[in-house]
User: Fold this.
Amino acid sequence: MSDVVSALDLLDLAIGRAEGVVTDEDVKAARDVAERVRERRGFLGDTLVVALAGGTGSGKSSLLNAIAGRQIAETGVLRPTTEEALAWVPTDPEPGLVELLERLGIDARYEQDALPKLAIIDLPDHDSIVLQHHQIVERLLPEVDAVVWVFDPQKYRDPLIHEQYISQLLEYQDQFLFVLNQIDLLGQHDLSQLRSDLIRSLEEDGVSAPRVFDLAAAPPAGRPLNIEPFRDFLRDQLDAKAVAAGKLLGDIRRAGKRLRTEAGLDEGAGIGFEDRWPSVRASVAQAFTEGTGFDDAVCRVGDFVTALSVETGGRFGAGLRNDFSYGRIEDELRGALDESGLKPTLRVERSRFGAAMRTFWFGEKSQAPEDPEAVPAFAKALEERIGRGLFEALWERGVLGATLAQVEIEARLAENR
Assistant:
């Protein structure tokens, strides 16, 4: 599973290009999907991004080392001060993760290849620079997959973290994990009581069914305790994220499919307009110069527009037929005749009604064009009045089709990476 963002950005682009090609209702439906995907909390890439938060001495850095399975800094000190967040990221991180860190202003980054699908952001101690830390946490929460609140046996009921952080950020509680660290300092009875008290305090904060992990990230002697269940949980979270991302990509593909259908693009965007229109334009001029008349010219353009609307289909095709109605075609042909100075040649009519109509439009006398430039001028005017409008409409549809094809391709590639 790979980054959803690129497919989502392409869907946004397609939505913008669909305006005027499909109905407002169809555009809104696609935009609702895009907004729903974008509002999903957490990093949309294929890396699980976890933030560690806690007070001084809670053991956040030790927990990071325990997850990594080794010291990630030679001295064991991850940063020179407590005022800077740092990130432990995969070697060659995906672009979206780099953009996230830059957006959050996290410059201290340590690369790792132990867990290539996991990134951990170690936040400043919450009790060292309260205001700045609070701002960092609030900016971070919508963008990460999980926040691990780390407690130690001495300060697990610290009112600062409970009252100013957890209880104030309950809308993100589905992203919260809680770690009771340093359990090696407790006996079994004390651990049971302390764990129950921590859960009770979190429930008093407003957290429903808090997920609490008991462990010792860096006991004085021996290996970390209970770190494997926590690491396994993170691995399960990554699998769950892949499933969720797959659903998001499915939503994006379905939104693109609906736009493609409503724009009449299921049969393909190419209809050969640029190859076909010049002959139609020439035949319309021929209708006037050879005497077949105004009605025939209108029918030739109208038949072409009808063919285009049938071939494009959907609401786009219906809209094309509506925009280039026979009434509009008649008006544009009259305007082209006036602009060019073309005087249509009359022929003998087969009916009095036809003769009367020709006389009404063109007068009694049969005329041939006196100006040799009249036919080219008429063709140019016809291009400006009808050809350009048809081309622009079909071009927008074609660009939309290409963008929607990119949406489908990017979503499929992301599903299979």
User: Anything to note?
Assistant: Residues 73-82, 365-369 have pLDDT under 50 and may be disordered. DSSP finds 14 helices and seven strands in the chain. The chain has two domains: 48-225, 273-416. Residues 273-416 form one domain.
